[in-house]
């Protein structure tokens, strides 16, 4: 029914790449604008009218914590914080405390994960929350980085990683988004990197959250194009 649909032009020449919902507000993940990587997070208050400009607020999270916190793709809400997945190659994670004012710099934190923890965090597309952990989906690589939300994201001990390359005898790299079903985290196959014409694939990756994250036996992969 066409009457069931609405469209609204917020007036920004900008890509918002995924979103997260906190029970009231939708946070749109900043990707690119005309200047390149963007940090302009858009928030929509669902208690307001969809077509009313006042329902929308933007905040520029660039230079949060003194870091180049730009270019994200994917977000997850853990009950208090919204975590933005870094599409930037530096592995700089961005976090919003929804209990603080959206437009206050004190509500925002950025973390250089590789520098802090030593874990290799490259470009990510998507973040998945399983009730405790945030999993950052590896884009064109195979290292899954995980954050324990019961710890402090600015502490190295809250971070861990697993290189899924070679899982089940497959390449197992290059994903674009994921989802949690109550036990397993599934990573959506996309692009392994390299040749833009041949790098796309159908290898679905899965992690069993009831087993140790760093254990290879907790991981499985299947080529969905050959099952």
How would you describe this structure in keywords?
mainly beta; 17 strands; globular
β-strand number:
17
Structural class, from helix and strand content? mainly beta
Gross geometry: globular
Main sheet record: 5 strands, antiparallel
Summed up:
This protein has 227 residues and is an all-beta fold.
Fold blueprint:
Blueprint: E1 14-21, E2 25-33, E3 36-37, E4 40-45, E5 56-60, E6 72-77, E7 81-86, E8 92-97, E9 108-112, H1 113-117, E10 124-129, E11 133-138, E12 143-148, E13 159-163, E14 175-180, E15 184-189, E16 203-208, E17 219-223
Antiparallel strand pairs: 1-2, 2-3, 2-4, 4-5, 6-7, 7-8, 8-9, 10-11, 11-12, 12-13, 14-15, 15-16, 16-17
Structural account:
This protein has 227 residues and is an all-beta fold. Helices cover 2% and strands 44% of the residues. The chain has 1 helix and 17 strands. It has one helix spanning 113-117; strands at residues 14-21, 25-33, 36-37, 40-45, 56-60, 72-77, 81-86, 92-97, 108-112, 124-129, 133-138, 143-148, 159-163, 175-180, 184-189, 203-208, 219-223. Strands 1, 2, 3, 4 and 5 form a 5-stranded antiparallel beta sheet that branches. A 4-stranded antiparallel beta sheet has the order 6-7-8-9. A 4-stranded antiparallel beta sheet has the order 10-11-12-13, with no helix packed on it. The radius of gyration is 18 Å and the shape is globular. The mean pLDDT is 96.
């Amino acid at each position: 029914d066409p009457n069931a649909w609405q469209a609204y032009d917020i007036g920004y020449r900008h890509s918002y790449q995924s979103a997260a919902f906190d029970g009231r507000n939708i946070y749109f993940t900043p990707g690119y604008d005309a200047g390149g990587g963007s940090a302009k997070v858009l928030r929509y208050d669902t208690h307001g009218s969809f077509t009313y400009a006042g329902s929308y607020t933007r905040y520029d999270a660039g230079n949060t914590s003194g870091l180049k916190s730009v270019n994200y793709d994917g977000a997850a809400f853990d009950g208090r914080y919204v975590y933005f997945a870094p599409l930037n190659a530096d592995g700089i994670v961005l976090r919003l405390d929804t209990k603080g004012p959206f437009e206050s710099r004190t509500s925002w934190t950025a973390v250089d994960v590789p520098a802090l923890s030593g874990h290799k965090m490259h470009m990510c597309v998507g973040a998945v929350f399983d009730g405790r952990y945030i999993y950052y989906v590896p884009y064109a690589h195979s290292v899954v980085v995980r954050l324990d939300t019961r710890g402090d994201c600015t502490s190295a001990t809250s971070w861990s990683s697993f290189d899924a390359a070679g899982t089940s005898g497959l390449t197992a790299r290059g994903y674009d988004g994921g989802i949690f079903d109550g036990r397993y985290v599934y990573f959506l196959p996309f692009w392994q990197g390299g040749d833009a014409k041949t790098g796309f694939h159908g290898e679905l990756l899965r992690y069993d959250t009831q087993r140790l994250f760093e254990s290879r036996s907790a991981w499985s992969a299947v080529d969905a194009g050959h099952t």
